Amino acid sequence: MANKVSVVTGALGGMGLEIATELARQGGTVVLVVRDAARGAAAAAVVRSTSGNGKVEVALADFASLVSVRGAAVELVRRHPKIHLLAHNAAVFSAERKITAEGNELMFGVNHLAPFLFTRLLVPALEAAGGARVVFNSGDWTHTISFDDLGSSKRFKALDAFGMSKSANNLMAVELAARLASKGICVNAVHPGFVKSTLVREAPLPLRMVFSVLGQTRHQGARWPLRVLTAPELEGVSGKFFVKASEKPYPKPARDAEACERLYRESERLVGIA
User: Fold this and answer.
1) What is the pLDDT of residue 13?
2) Concatenated DSSP letters for 48-105?
3) In degrees, to the nearest 5, what angle opens at C-alpha 24 toward C-alphas 23 and 28?
4) Is 34:40 a contact under the CB 8 Å cutoff?
5) pLDDT recorded at residue 206
6) 90-111 in b/e burial notation, b at 16+ Cβ within 10 A?
């Protein structure tokens, strides 16, 4: 890891911060992608102190703004022409329907569209690294993609909208793995299991209780994405879905090749790239 560059989104706390810290322990440069400069600086200081690695940087990106995502990606590629690892952890849950700067439903925008755009814009640096790995912190989501209502404007139920946004991560991992294979970029998704997190603070009480009682610590949960990011035996492995350390079939929605391709095309349209 000594000469590698790792980029971790959602690194202000939770599993993102834990993943960043462990990657920093292993060496190389680690970039924390965060939405708040002051909190980002504090998080970076924690990672440096805990890991003993001074090569910890911050990149500002508000995933609720595609303009901000574009700016951060362009700056990152300029700063680091080679990026070896990309760990997607940024996520939001909202009990009420909210919209992003571009008018997309907040959870679909932050949890899916922003990571999609960010990954696409980092492709030149990921390709240049040779054998780069991209990992989505996902789950065993069985929500199908409502192509006639991607913004959940016709019918909004918070858990359904969140589930669709995270199911989209699985579909994109499948589609990106296929499309980026020729560039030597590996893309996988990991279901770490239940992890104690502030992400669900607006969720219904029963769900909060499940996470509270059954959830792993962020340190325990981070082991599984870290394994897919760094394990030597997984070099060159792509298009796979892992439940903790075990490879499993993707949830049913992500096994629909037509839906994966359609979501890719719709996502391109929504973020304004071709």
Assistant:
1) 84
2) HHHH----EEEEE--TT-HHHHHHHHHHHHHH-S---EEEE------SS--B-TTS-B
3) 95
4) yes
5) 60
6) bbbbbeeeeebeeebbbbbbbb
3-state secondary structure of 8: strand
Cβ atoms of residues 89 and 16 within 8 Å? yes
Whole-number Å distance between alpha carbons of 100 and 102: 5
> What is the pLDDT at residue 197?
62
pLDDT at res. 217: 78
Low-confidence residues of the chain: pLDDT under 50: 202
State residue 211's pLDDT score: 61
**Shortest CA distance to 93 belongs to which of 37, 34, 32, 166?**
166
Whole-number Cα distances in Å, 12 to 61, 84, 251: 12, 21, 29
Reduce the DSSP state of residue 30 to 3 states and report it. strand
**What is residue 193's predicted lDDT score, i.e. its pLDDT?**
79
pLDDT of residue 213: 54
